[in-house]
Amino acid sequence: MKQIKYKMNKQIVLKSRPIGLPTISNFEMREISIPVIEQDEVLLRAKIVSVDPYMRGRMSNAKSYVAPFELEKPITGGVVAEVIESKNSKFKAGDAVLGLFPWQEIFKANGTDLTKVDGSIASLGYYLGILGMPGLTAYFGLLDIGKPKKGETVVVSGAAGAVGIAVCQIAKINGCRVIGIAGDQAKVDLLVNEFGCDIGINYKAEKNIRKAIATACPDGVDVYFDNVGGEISDAVISQINDSARIIICGQISLYNETALPIGPRVQGTLLKRSALMQGFIVNKYAARFPEGINHMSQWIKEGKLTYRETITKGFENLPETFIGLFEGKNLGKALVEIE
Ligand code: NAP
Q: How far is CA 188 from the centre of its chain?
């Protein structure tokens, strides 16, 4: 079958490595030809592209758990795409698939690196959000490391983001008192009214974040789910109880720092409180992803778990939407829909 419908193709490459907050000039959009597929390959059109904070780490040259993006090559990340041509018997035109793909409108893949997803079960964006990497991060980080018990106080930073809104609700499902921290009053209101928080704290409006956390947590903090690091985390950790669990999920407040600030040293507090502090990367739980997806799908069906997406339209808006993560422009999962 010949593809005649698509004549133009675009990709977005990393043009230069950001120093501090990324800018639009770190990216470049290019016109390229449409790939030709071989036996066992499929031609895909991007439908929904995920922007995630971890991508900032890959834009620098530092050694990490994933290799840096290469200059002059497209950014890659989570994408839901539509099969538009197939030479692979497992896929047919019209199938929706999920994978790690380039920021490119039309691209090819072999059949081994993609998973079929069903838009009639959940909206396609959910496979990049609550039923995808961020949701699974919330589920395993909170339940496996945090081990929240009924009646305990759970504090969540970055609470109104893709991971955070899931953490808050899963903590509430587990019978905890939940305090969510976010950087905008409308987000804080939603945390309380829709996402299971007993109290929301707007860290941008609080003059004394430590005092705000102490006031919100009169019985101390049993579980802290840390998405942001920095001063917010220093303040929460100062309030932990004996045998508290601190889950280091992300440190977004530090991702654009060129020199890391030296915060309070937390070891003394951990020692006095016999507390656990543990980092993790969600892929560590890959073998258990079906368990997490089943559990969260069930909670969604039962109306116990709800989710939000902030969808920007237009392939060309990918860099700006990514940069917006560091300015708090998203509520829930930030996605770009390709028209
Ligand atoms: P996200 O929350 O959807 O987007 C980022 C949010 O972080 C923004 O909306 C903003 O909300 C907040 N933020 C930005 N700069 C901040 C700052 N300087 N201080 C405090 N808050 C700031 O992102 P996500 O996908 O849910 O990820 C949340 C964290 O988890 C990130 O650190 C990410 O790297 C990490 N993560 C880790 C894993 C893992 O495997 N360990 C997996 C996924 C994500 P406000 O309006 O509240 O400022």
A: 19
